[in-house]
Design brief:
Elements (H helix, E strand, L loop, with lengths): L1 H11 L20 H4 L11 H4 L1 H16 L2 E7 L6 E8 L3 E5 L8 E4 L27 H7 L2 E4 L1 H4 L15 E5 L4 H12 L8 E6 L23 H7 L3 E3 L20 H13 L7 E5 L2 E2 L2 E2 L18 H4 L2 E4 L21 H8 L3 E5 L15 H13 L10 H10 L13 H9 E5 L15 H4 L10 E5 L3 E2 L5 E10 L3 E7 L2 E7 L4 E3 L7 E9 L6 E17 L4 E4 L7 E4 L15 E6 L2 E6 L2 E3 L5 E15 L4 E8 L3 E2 L5 E9 L5 E10 L5 E6 L3 E3 L4 E8 L6 E10 L5 E11 L2 E7 L3 E3 L4 E9 L5 E11 L5 E3 L3 E5 L4 E8 L7 E11 L2 E13 L15 H9 L6 H7 L16
Parallel strand pairs: 3-6, 7-8, 7-9, 9-12, 12-13, 30-37, 39-46
Antiparallel strand pairs: 1-2, 4-5, 10-11, 13-14, 15-17, 16-17, 17-28, 18-19, 20-21, 21-26, 22-28, 23-24, 25-26, 27-28, 29-31, 31-35, 32-33, 32-34, 32-36, 36-37, 38-40, 40-44, 41-42, 41-43, 41-45, 45-46
Helix pairs in contact: 1-7, 12-13
């Protein structure tokens, strides 16, 4: 545990000591006795409130700490007279790392909104096909028995309330957990190691109907289109996507259903070979039927029994692991029921070397046995990949940010209210990230392709509706505006689908989407308009001014019957309690907050399941009234890179929206601040105009010299009389040099000398000199040796190495770490860590390489005395500790 804490404090220093954003480490138990006394085996499940007394206390602390770390500016609002000031957050931390499993810092226990987790809710129990695991003493299993799912989403929500239940989270959150402190340290070290994420390979299996967009949409009845062609997203960034049928000779493992190409065993062999490919993998993904202890794939389920014997590269490549089916992300300890590294996939893959893990703690939902209905969990994960791979440049978005934005932008099909959105709420809360949230992937060779190319097969030609915005108008009240928009729908389509001898009518509208909710008619909806909301803005009214409608006859619209992925998924029925036109008139226009603003959804088809009478609404006119003290807002602010070298220009892109009634003439100032908050560089823009009700994209660069360290890049917007009207910020780092690698002997026998090499790159133009230092440390603790430092001199723009020699004598065999630090002019770079094994001396007499010297080896020596001198063999005879494989990852 000491090693983990030391590394956390090193990482918190930021550049150049680490690759981590600058951070503050808080011990929650020192701030609240409830955290100090937390016991996850003694939880009162009477209600969600009683189950989360400690979690809510910690959530309050996180909000206070975040507020303390936020930089605010005062902005003057002149109306109504005499005016007033509002506080505007110009810079704040974006990441949250929770250190500890549920026994240290509790997950929030969210009472399953779909009421599908509890042991008493499984009608198939004790049959093997249901979630029938039961325990009174295993905290993770018992939570599901009580109909709760484990989530970190409330901690990521800064503003209290229940917005997190609809995906509204502000912090990019991850959790360090593991079956031991050593596993937690590994998860941290591999997550922050920038030598990871560079293999360029992606290994994916999506089976039994899980969709990644590789199967083309074809417009069939009831189709719910994919959001992204995920494999194209990866290929466009230069990744090798194995087994996606490119080339066509390989066995396809993505978007496939039985019967599987090559037969079950052949399919499994090809998938295993893809994961073990010497080219390495940055992502390991399985979508389909899961439990916490296995993932169903053809031929042989993936489970902890398979690592490291069958799947051998987790400790070499340290990929991001995603196992996204039911309970695949539930961290089950080895208490009462089988769990821990031997039986729980979360703990196993972290133990084996994965640098991050994403999965669902409860039942996940989708469309089993159908590659043309992209729903719930499939939809969220496709959106995650779209966010992850959208940035240009050399690397992906941080995984924690991508997951948070995917949740923020997830659209609730029937609105975010009441029981009809239960599965949407569950979907955006049950997927957790284990690992550092600022980890990312390097693009092997970003090509001309982009996110848009990966959506090209889903682009709608001849879209059946259009949105027309009217001019923004000012209301009588100060700082209040109105925006009217119109939606005109030209046509709809009806296709028939037969299920269980019943013919159903499936409505769709080109360019629209499909709303699916248990017990509700399956009907199309449109994303009609998104209103950006500036800071402190609020909606004061939504009025439907006009709807044009016509009765179109009687149709047998299916009612959604939804079960977990493992129990059948989405099917159709005619049974429902609804006996009126649905959605009700008041719900034909709905809105929800997303990461992009206030999103309005409209429902052109209204259906009465009791009479089958159906109405088509071909025109909507909607007026939105909102109060906005600031009429402009920064909707997006990005730098062209996250890490720079000392003399590189820093270029930024700022998207600015104007929700006011007049065009705004603005100027912008780009500000670079160091770790002390001191301004070290500025660049001003020329005046520019943002039209009323429209947007403008500003590109602005700064050129100059920055030394090693972490910096904040801010954009400040100014209106008339140099009055600040908005802004945003992001973090960057500047590296003058870095440790680029450590070479160690994978296995070093006791008594034999081994070479260790540290490589360091100088990114400045001038020569630098310093010392390289290496510490050898036993992973089990109790041994640490500092080797004599080596001088190192590196010419400008080049790389040099320092070599150390070490002989393990008088130390136990086992796992060790080589910890490197390079000090240049008083500035320490690192630490960088590499694991290796100290093994017993080799056995020359172990001819059959089975780990011992026994009678079998003696018989071989008798047949061929030249194999080894008899005296040497006699000394070794009886040894049972002959080294075979590197110890790390060989046993749980």
């Amino acid at each position: 545990m000491t090693g983990l804490l030391q590394r956390l404090f090193t990482e918190a220093q930021g550049q150049p000591a680490s690759h981590t954003p600058r951070a503050v480490v808080y011990y929650v138990e020192r701030y609240d006795s409830r955290a100090y006394n937390w016991d996850n085996t003694a939880i009162d499940y009477t209600s969600e409130t009683t189950a989360n007394i400690t979690a809510n206390a910690i959530d309050d602390l996180i909000e206070d700490w975040h507020d303390d770390a936020t930089e605010y500016v005062e902005i003057f609002i002149p109306y109504p007279s005499p005016g007033y000031y509002i506080t505007y957050p110009i810079a704040s931390p974006g990441y949250l790392l929770i250190v500890g499993d549920d026994d240290t810092i509790p997950f929030y226990r969210y009472n399953d909104p779909y009421d599908d987790e509890g042991i008493n809710n499984r009608p198939s129990c004790p049959a093997a096909d249901g979630w029938c695991v039961d325990s009174d003493t295993n905290p993770a299993i018992h939570a599901t028995d009580e109909d709760y799912i484990l989530t970190d989403s409330p901690y990521a929500d800064l503003y209290g309330g229940t917005d997190w239940q609809t995906g509204s989270v502000e912090l990019w959150t991850g959790r360090l957990l593991g079956a031991s402190a050593a596993d937690m340290l590994s998860l941290l070290e591999e997550g922050v190691d920038w030598n990871n994420g560079r293999r360029g390979g992606v290994v994916m299996a999506s089976v039994d109907g899980w969709e990644l967009g590789l199967e083309p949409d074809d417009g069939r009845a009831g189709e719910i289109a994919d959001l992204y062609h995920v494999t194209a997203l990866f290929r466009n960034k230069g990744f090798v996507v194995r087994n996606d049928d490119i080339p066509s000779g390989e066995v396809q493992t993505i978007d496939v259903m039985a019967p599987y190409e090559g037969g079950n065993n052949g399919w499994n062999t090809d998938f295993t070979n893809a994961a073990n490919n010497n080219g390495g993998m940055d992502l390991f993904f399985i979508g389909g039927h899961d439990s916490y202890d296995h993932a169903n794939i053809p031929g042989d389920d993936f489970s902890p029994d398979d690592t490291p014997g069958k799947y051998t590269r987790f400790d070499n490549d340290h990929p991001i692991a995603m196992i996204v089916g039911c309970h695949g992300g539930l961290p089950v300890p080895d208490i009462d029921v089988d769990g821990g590294v031997d039986h729980c996939m979360v703990h196993d893959l972290i133990h084996e070397g994965a640098r991050a893990y994403i999965g669902a703690t409860g039942f996940s939902y989708g469309s089993p046995n159908n590659l043309h209905k992209n729903t719930w969990g499939e939809r969220l994960i496709q959106r995650f990949f779209g966010k992850l791979l959208i940035p240009p440049g050399s690397n992906s978005m941080a995984i924690g940010k991508a997951l948070a934005e995917a949740k923020n932008d997830y659209t609730f099909g029937y609105g975010n209210y009441g029981p009809v959105d239960a599965l949407d709420r569950k979907t955006v809360t049950e997927f957790n990230l284990y690992g550092v949230p600022w980890a990312f992937l390097y693009y092997p060779n970003a090509m001309a392709g982009s996110e848009d190319d990966a959506q090209s097969s889903f682009e709608i030609e001849d879209q059946a509706f259009e949105t027309v915005k009217q001019a923004v108008t000012r209301e009588a009240k100060a700082n209040e505006y109105a925006q009217t928009f119109e939606i005109r729908i030209d046509r709809y389509e009806v296709k028939k689908e037969k299920q269980d001898s019943i013919i159903y009518d499936l409505f769709s509208i080109k360019g629209g989407d499909t709303a699916v909710s248990p017990g509700i008619p399956i009907l199309p909806y449109l994303k009609g308009y998104t209103l950006p909301l500036p800071h402190k803005a609020k909606v004061t009214g939504v009025e439907v001014l006009k709807i044009s409608s016509e009765e179109i006859g009687e149709y047998n619209v299916p009612i959604a019957h939804v079960q977990p992925w493992s129990e059948g998924g989405l099917t159709y029925t005619t049974k429902t309690d609804i006996n009126y036109p649905y959605p009700a008139d008041r719900d034909l226009v709905q809105y929800q907050e997303t990461g992009e603003g206030l999103e309005f959804t409209l429902y052109p088809i209204q259906h009465n399941p009791d009479t089958d009478e159906t109405t088509f609404h071909s025109y909507f006119s909607v007026k939105v009234t909102y109060e906005a003290p600031l009429s402009v807002t920064v909707t997006e602010f990005n730098t062209d890179k996250s890490q720079y070298r000392p003399k590189e220009s820093i270029c930024t892109t700022t998207s600015i929206a104007n929700v006011g009634d007049v065009a705004m003439i603005l100027e912008a100032e780009l500000i670079i601040k160091n770790q002390l908050g001191e301004t070290v560089g500025t660049q001003n823009s020329e005046p520019f105009q943002v039209p009323s009700g429209d947007a403008f994209v500003l590109e602005l660069c700064w050129a100059g010299y920055l030394g090693d360290g972490a910096y904040t890049v801010q954009i400040a917007l100014f209106g008339g009389r140099a009055t600040m009207v908005g802004g945003a910020s992001t973090a960057i780092s500047v590296l003058a040099g870095e440790i680029t690698g450590i070479e160690v002997p994978p296995m070093l026998p006791l008594g034999e000398e081994g070479a260790f090499k540290i490589s360091f790159a100088n990114y400045t133009a001038g020569q630098i000199s310093g010392e390289a230092r290496l510490t050898i440390q036993n992973s089990a603790g109790g041994f640490s040796q500092d080797l004599p430092p080596q001088p190192i001199t590196i010419a400008g723009g080049s790389q040099e190495s320092a070599t150390f020699m070490w002989t393990p004598e008088g130390v136990p065999a086992g796992d060790y770490s080589a910890i490197a630090i390079v000090e240049i002019d008083g500035q320490a770079y690192g630490p960088a860590t590499k694991s290796f094994a100290v093994t017993p001396p080799p056995c020359k007499g172990d001819f059959d390489d089975d780990g011992d010297v026994d009678g079998v080896d003696l018989s071989q020596l008798a047949k061929n005395p030249r194999l080894l001198d008899l005296a040497v063999f006699a000394v070794e005879f009886g040894r049972t500790n002959c080294p075979l494989l590197p110890p790390k990852g060989t046993a749980h």
